[in-house]
Design a protein that fits this description.
about 70 residues; alpha+beta; Ribosomal Protein L9, domain 1; three-stranded antiparallel β-sheet; two-stranded antiparallel ribbon; elongated
Length: about 70
C-alpha cells in the first residue's frame, strides 16, 4: 500500500495525500469519495469541517511559526 503524505501549508490547511481512511471522534468513517487528496481545516473556522473551505484566508489565520514570530516581534 502506498504511503500517506501530510503537507502542512503555511497559514492554510493540512493536505493529506494517498489512500485515505478518515474517521470522526466516534470511529465513524467520513466519506472522502475515493479522493486521492483532501484538505483538512486547521484554523477551526471552516463550515465544512473536517475539510477546509478557505475560511483561513478570510480570518487571517496564522500557523504556529508565524503566530509565534509575530508575538515575539520577530
Amino acid at each position: 500500500m502506498p504511503d500517506v503524505e501530510i503537507t502542512i501549508r503555511n497559514n492554510g490547511p493540512y493536505w493529506v495525500t494517498g489512500p485515505i481512511k478518515l474517521q470522526d471522534a466516534d470511529g465513524n468513517e467520513v466519506d472522502v469519495a475515493g479522493r486521492e487528496r483532501v484538505s483538512l481545516c486547521r484554523c477551526g473556522g471552516s463550515t465544512k469541517k473536517p475539510f477546509c473551505d478557505g475560511t483561513h484566508s478570510k480570518i487571517g489565520f496564522q500557523g504556529a511559526i508565524e503566530a509565534v514570530e509575530k508575538a515575539e516581534g520577530s
